[in-house]
Every structure is written in C-alpha cells, then in structure tokens.
Amino acid sequence: FRLIRRLPAEVRARQIAGTAEDLLDLSAEVDPERDHIRGSEQAPVTLVEYGDHQCPYCGQAEVVVRELLVSFGDDLRYVWRHLPLSDVHPNAQMAAEATEAAAAQDAFWEMNDKLLQHQDELAPGDLARSAEELGLDVDRFWDELQRRKYAGRVAEDVASADTSGVAGTPGFFINGRRHQGAYDIETLTAAVRAARHRALLTAKAERQPDPQRAG
C-alpha cells in the first residue's frame, strides 16, 4: 500500500482506467435515445435502477433517488428501467406499460413518480384517472394500454435485467457496476461519491500523455 501511494496520481488513475471495463456488470449500456433519463448527459456518474412500480422497496428508493439528484446536481444522471415482478405484484406489468403510454405523450416521469408515490392505486381505473389528472389524452392512453402497445418495450428492459443478473427490485447499477449494498441515502451517497471520484480520476488519466509513447 505504501508503494501504491508513492505512485504519481496520473499513474494510479491510468491503472484505474485500464481495469474499469473489466468490472462492468450492466449488460445493456445506457442509450439516451431509448432510456428514460434524469440529469445531465455529461454527468460523470450514472445510476441505473431496475424497478417495479408496485414494489414497496422501489417506492422507498424513489425518495432516496430524488435526494441524490438534488445533492449531486449535474454530477449524477438517473435511469429507470422496468422489471415488473408479476408473480408477486399483479398490477406491476400494466403500471409499467402505463408509464410508457404516458411517455408517448411526453409525460413518463410525471406518471412514473405518481405511480411510485401511490402504489395502492395501480388498478386499471386508477391508471386512467392518473392519466386524466396529468392532462393526458385519456382515450389514446387507454387504447394503447388495451392493445398492449408497449409490452415489447417493457420486455426489452426485463431481458436486459435478466442478462445483467437482476432477480429482484430495486436493482441498482452505478457506472455499470452492480450496487450490492443497502439503498438508504447514506449508503448510496457514499457509493455515488466513490464512483464520481473514480470517474474523475479516469478522465484525468485519459487526458494525460502516455510517457511510454513520448519522444
């Protein structure tokens, strides 16, 4: 450890950068054209959550994520992906599809937040009422839900969760690495702060000239 500490900062950072890709657990990279994202696209830290709108733990995590976004500002972006656990949460699948129907009317986050904050109101009639309260075209919303227009979109998220080894919700990944610990505000804050530090070191290493190539 003493020897490691004596290494120049840029050398230590280069070692971190060189091993980063070997440790990634998230199978599907974040796609700004597809994924639902909150926060700056240039943020050094990306927090991906696989969630279920009927999962009470996801409801608790939603409060924590909001605090993190305020605390870290432009240093954090947050991605929601669907993982409805229909065997234990019978309304989760339709709720997920409802958020996608809302997304088609540019209201994904409004619907997502509403459903997570009112997890006892996920029956079909509740979803229609939520759409009305959000000012959506309810006829279009309900027609798309009945036709299961967004079932495939939800299934894609579920498939990526499966290939990433996510079995329950909420499932978190921080800069592509699975978060194994608790998801209270203190634990996630520490994890995001560590990821930010690592990302900044990596960025610094990439800007440093390689001494082996110099001259």
Description:
The protein has 215 residues and is an alpha+beta fold. The protein has nine helices and five strands, in the order ααββαβαααααββα. It has helices at residues 2-6, 9-20, 56-72, 92-103, 108-117, 124-133, 138-146, 151-163, 185-207; strands at 36-39, 45-51, 76-82, 171-174, 177-178. Helix 3 links the parallel strand 2 (45-51) and strand 3 (76-82). Helix 2 crosses helix 9 and helix 4 packs across helix 7 (138-146). The longest helix has 23 residues, at 185-207. It is elongated and about 60 Å long.
Short description:
The protein has 215 residues and is α+β, with helices and mostly antiparallel strands. 52% of the residues lie in helices and 11% in strands.
